[in-house]
Structure prediction request, 230 residues.
Amino acid sequence: MITMEYYNNNLELKFESCWYSNRLLDKLLLMNEKTSHKINILEVQKAIYYAKHYHGEQKRQSGEPYYSHPLEVAYMVSDYLFRTDILVTSILHDTLEDTELTFEMIKYIFGEVVASQVEDLTRIKENRKISSAEMVESLWLQKKYDLLLIKQFDRLHNMQTIGVKSFEKIRKITKETISTFTVLAAYLGIRNIEEELIQSCTTFIEKDSEGESYDLLHKNDAFALSNVSK
Prediction:
């Protein structure tokens, strides 16, 4: 196992920059210069290292390295919540579910707060995989709004790159996005994200010759929120 001490002693040797990490770190360094509430860049670099190391050769359906996704989520989250633990959690949010990185390892390397947050964002619960809508409902009931923000941008980035998926997968994700994530964006007060999600969904709904999911766009927020706050 790669320990925190080993990593810290070998940072310059082990951390390999790439376009995705440079884009994120350049933004965070610039934001650090403009705020008194600075984030710990070293912790973010460490999270990037572990995300890249454990996601390894995993690829997204677009052909991009999988780790590009959590780095992009962190990039978007930073505009709304500039906090070290949240950015580190964003970068690691898929590691428990999709890699060999464990809760104990994350706790040892990044602390219990980050480990618990990553676990909360993991869809494997009690030997079954819950839906994203179920996760949103659970986090909402627990009032874990910071983690809901990460989940919101996780979905936004997935919608931005959804075109490479199968028609049936697109249809399923689009319906869930309309019924859960557009409403969540509104309740989190990020109307621009709500509008972007609706626009993305509309684009794919218009391609659905059956038009089965179109009516979801016309349901009121109170009804759609039943997936979040029931």
User: Anything to note?
Assistant: Residues 167-187 form the longest helix (21 residues). The radius of gyration is 18 Å. Residues 141 and 229 are 7 Å apart (CA to CA).
